[in-house]
């Protein structure tokens, strides 16, 4: 905390926290509030957190509402016949989100806002027509409200953890969509994978890690798959409730599909046969790395149901993005190819941070989160830097995940307890809703025994697991510090 500074709403330094007594720091905070003795801005909230005083003003279980811009429109008068506004530029210029009207007036020489001369371009406003004295441009902003619960106040590290009270969406995005079985890389195929016969060998490749579906499976393409393209199989890695259904005949009844780099289909319905002909693409398996050979070949479980690794989670990409929405049918504006097996996601949804109050966003800190790894990724855990995160089973009070304490990490050590709000909580306390209905919702914690199952919360609040390619509810967690 040696260099944390108190600032006013403009970012001007007021005082250093070093050497300040608690009373002196609180006096500064009260001064920032205009003498009202209550938190009046997110900047003040952050100052109190950094000063180690937030527990005097805010308590676990309380709620913080945050505005999120939901629309902009423009009306004009006088010689101006039309106007448009870039919402990203406008939000950055105003520094806030909320339902309000901003009137820009032309005095014959310059445009003004609240009596001060401004450049309309700095607010993302473009005009059609010639302005005359007395003309106005009014930008009407509407906003919705996202409510965050205060779930943890970490006095030691001077951090406050927030989690949305309700789910942000339901059924819109998977944790991770089904991945490719094989990916075409420049290292192996610098000119793309040419048309011809290819084969994939299965070793302990059935969903249950059994060998009943093992074999050397051949398919033939008639089109070159470009660098960055994909190959998938319709049957490999699928779960069967009846063990007798794990057999070669089921795989042979499936087909191969090839894709371009953008995920569009090149060829589909390519027949699967047994044989030793064709170029070997690699050896695949359900989830145990000891049976897999080839960097470009994936696990069958991830071919069927997606990956349960938080680091490459599609929902995480969306949560941490401020990108505007993409056009209908286009690859999502916030999607990134993080592994060679990631299949593109198509969505018109803007990123979660898009339109969220800029002052609030500026207070969010990047933190290190620890998450368990599954068998396919070597077990153990990995620490990732997170701006907006899904909570873990440990943080929600369900306990460790495969003996891993899945919490924030400071100075290399994980926090040794769940979020205070969920320490000793009942399942009822973990229920989250969307549009007033209790729903399933994702955690960031994998089920460690396979490559595709991710932990989630039942509508009852109970812990369970399911395939990563399911589209459940998504909350947003973040840390102010």
Outline the structure in words.
There is one protein chain. The protein is mostly beta strands and 481 residues long. Helices cover 11% and strands 33% of the residues. The protein contains eight helices and 32 strands. Strand 9 and strand 10 form a beta hairpin. The N terminus is likely disordered.
Strand content: 25-35%
Strand count, sense and barrel status of the largest sheet are: 9 strands, antiparallel
Helix content: 10-25%
Count of β-strands: 32
Structural class: mainly beta
* Average pLDDT for all residues: 93
- Distinct helical segment count: 8
Give the uncertain stretches in residue-range form. 1-20
Question: Which of globular, elongated, flat, extended, rod-shaped describes the shape?
Answer: globular
* Domain tally: 4
The span between the termini is: 10 Å
Rg value: 27 Å
What keyword list fits this structure?
globular; 481 residues; four-stranded antiparallel beta sheet; 8 helices; mainly beta; disordered N terminus; nine-stranded antiparallel beta sheet
Task: Itemize the secondary structure elements and their pairings.
Layout: E1 5-7, E2 13-16, H1 22-32, H2 42-50, H3 54-57, E3 63-76, E4 80-85, H4 87-94, E5 100-106, E6 111-113, E7 116-118, E8 125-129, E9 136-154, E10 159-164, E11 169-170, E12 182-183, E13 196-202, E14 215-221, E15 230-233, H5 248-253, E16 255-259, E17 265-271, E18 273-274, E19 279-284, H6 300-305, H7 314-319, H8 358-362, E20 364-365, E21 367-372, E22 381-386, E23 388-389, E24 408-410, E25 413-414, E26 433-434, E27 437-438, E28 441-446, E29 453-457, E30 463-467, E31 473-474, E32 477-480
Parallel strand pairs: 13-19
Antiparallel strand pairs: 1-2, 3-9, 4-8, 5-6, 5-9, 6-7, 9-10, 10-32, 11-31, 12-15, 13-14, 14-18, 15-16, 16-17, 20-32, 21-22, 21-24, 23-32, 24-25, 26-27, 28-29, 29-30
């Amino acid at each position: 905390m040696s260099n944390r500074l108190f600032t006013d709403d403009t970012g001007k330094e007021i005082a250093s926290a070093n050497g300040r007594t608690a009373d002196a720091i609180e006096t500064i905070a009260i001064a920032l509030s205009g003498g009202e003795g209550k938190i009046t801005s997110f900047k003040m909230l952050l100052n109190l957190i950094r000063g180690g005083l937030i527990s005097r003003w805010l308590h676990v279980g309380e709620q913080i509402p945050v505005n999120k811009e939901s629309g902009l429109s423009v009306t004009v008068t006088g010689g101006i016949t039309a106007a448009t506004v870039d919402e990203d530029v406008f939000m950055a210029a105003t520094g806030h989100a909320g339902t309000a009207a901003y009137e820009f007036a032309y005095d014959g020489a310059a445009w003004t806002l609240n009596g001060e001369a401004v450049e309309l371009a700095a607010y993302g406003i473009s005009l059609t027509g010639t302005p005359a004295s007395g003309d106005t441009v009014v930008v009407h902003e509407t906003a919705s409200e996202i409510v965050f619960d205060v779930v943890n106040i970490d006095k030691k590290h001077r951090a406050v953890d927030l989690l949305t009270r309700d789910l942000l969406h339901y059924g819109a995005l998977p944790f991770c969509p089904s991945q490719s079985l094989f990916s075409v890389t420049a290292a192996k195929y610098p000119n793309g994978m040419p048309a011809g016969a290819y084969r994939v060998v299965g070793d302990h490749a059935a969903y249950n890690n059994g060998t009943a579906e093992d074999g050397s499976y051949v398919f033939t393409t008639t089109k070159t798959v470009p660098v960055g393209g994909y190959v998938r199989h319709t049957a490999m890695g699928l779960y069967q409730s009846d063990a007798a259904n794990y057999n070669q005949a089921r795989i042979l009844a499936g087909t191969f599909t090839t894709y371009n780099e953008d995920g569009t289909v090149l060829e589909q319905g390519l027949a699967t046969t047994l044989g030793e002909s064709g170029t070997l693409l690699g050896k695949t398996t359900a989830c145990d790395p000891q049976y897999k050979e080839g960097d470009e070949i994936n696990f069958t479980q991830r071919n069927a149901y997606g990956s349960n690794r938080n680091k490459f989670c599609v929902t995480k990409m969306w949560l941490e993005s401020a990108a505007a929405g993409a056009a209908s049918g286009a690859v999502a504006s916030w999607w990134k190819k993080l592994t060679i097996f990631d299949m593109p996601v198509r969505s018109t949804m803007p990123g979660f941070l898009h339109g969220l109050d800029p002052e609030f966003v500026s207070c969010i800190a990047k933190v290190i989160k620890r998450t368990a790894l599954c068998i396919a990724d070597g077990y153990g855990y990995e620490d990732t830097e997170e701006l907006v995160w899904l909570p873990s089973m440990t943080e929600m009070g369900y306990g460790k995940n495969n003996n891993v304490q899945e919490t924030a990490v400071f100075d290399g050590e994980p926090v040794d307890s769940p979020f205070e709000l969920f320490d000793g909580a009942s399942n009822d306390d973990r229920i989250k809703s969307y549009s007033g209905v209790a729903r399933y919702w994702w955690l960031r914690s994998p089920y460690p025994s396979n490559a595709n199952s991710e932990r989630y919360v039942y509508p009852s609040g109970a812990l369970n697991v399911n395939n990563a390619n399911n589209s459940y509810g998504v909350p947003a967690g973040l840390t102010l510090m």
